[in-house]
Amino acid sequence: CIQEQNYDQAIEYLDDIELKKSFKQVVAETKGDIYKFKGDKNMSLKYYNEAVEASAINNENLLMKRNAVKN
Fold first, then answer.
1. What phi and psi values does residue 59 have, to the nearest 5 degrees?
2. List of residues 6+ apart from 37 with CB closer than 8 A
3. pLDDT by residue (tens digit) across 22-41?
4. What's the CA gap between 38 and 27, in Å, rounded?
5. Please, which residues have CB within 8 angstroms of residue 7's CB and are 6 or more apart in sequence?
6. Entry pTM
7. What is the DSSP letter of 57?
């Protein structure tokens, strides 16, 4: 879906996933990426923040993504 730029459908698929705590960071980061591709900075930042909060480690790549949208 993402490669085809069908971002809304990609978000729907991610929303349908029953999340286990261990996958929350990955799904939130992916949603942040999709909203960034759509040009929605507010939603992108929301999901990047969720991903940072769910991350077990200090993920530099994720922090860079979040900060790029934030600015």
1. -90, 100
2. 2, 5, 7
3. 688 888 999 999 999 999 99
4. 17
5. 1, 34, 35, 37, 38
6. 0.70
7. S
